Amino acid sequence: MSDKIINIISNSNYDSRKTTSRLIQILIDNGYTPTTTFNPSAELTICVGGDGSFLKAVHKNSFSTIPLVGVNTGHLGFFQEISPENLEEFVEEYKNGNYIIEEVKLIGAEIFTRTKSIILTAINEIVVKAQASKIIHLNAYVNRNHLEKFSGDGILISTPSGSTAYNFSNGGAILHPSLNVYELTPIAPVNSVAYRSLSSSIVIPGNYVVSIVPEKRYSSSNLILVDGQEYSFKGLKKINFRMSNKTIKKLTFENESYWENLKSKFL
Fold this sequence. Notes:
The chain is an alpha+beta fold.
């Protein structure tokens, strides 16, 4: 790893571009070599924008092991801890080694169709739903034990870090990022004589496998959203979810910053 090289990834809005320009100059003044072209040998990657920019940057760079930190120019920033007003302080703290590296747990989905299998990885969540806003019918299993015959808008599988995002909007519980668990949350479940769906989320141990099997008539009308990115598969047979062996590294400056972030975003 080459010392002093720092990647900067920014979205294109005015505030982010303005903040990036300032950040580049501050880094240069402190002896660093900032680059806006991703360098796999960099010691740090700084994402400028909101949480969406952070997620896109991680996916685009294939879950790089380079530590990441976010500068928040968006609205909601659970991954974006640094405000544009504190850039000088951030660089000084980083330069002096006053930071902590946290590992962020990811969720993996192994998708089986009639002709192939593929693995997708998410930081926040993976959602299984029907196309064109239709109701979808699925069978859910935990470690091969049948859990429910689901009917509704979809099922959401969330990481602890993602539990404050789309999961929270659908009534899911907030999970502390240190927990080795993930969460299954129903989206607008419907109960009938034929279908019995849980109305609340379930916390799943990290070493357990959740399997989602669509009814045959829905095998080619599914939509899978991975951190908001859409995928569709013909002849979908089954999806196995488990905590991924991959992690990403996130740079933070306080052991207890999570609680302050939680309070400032939701209270």
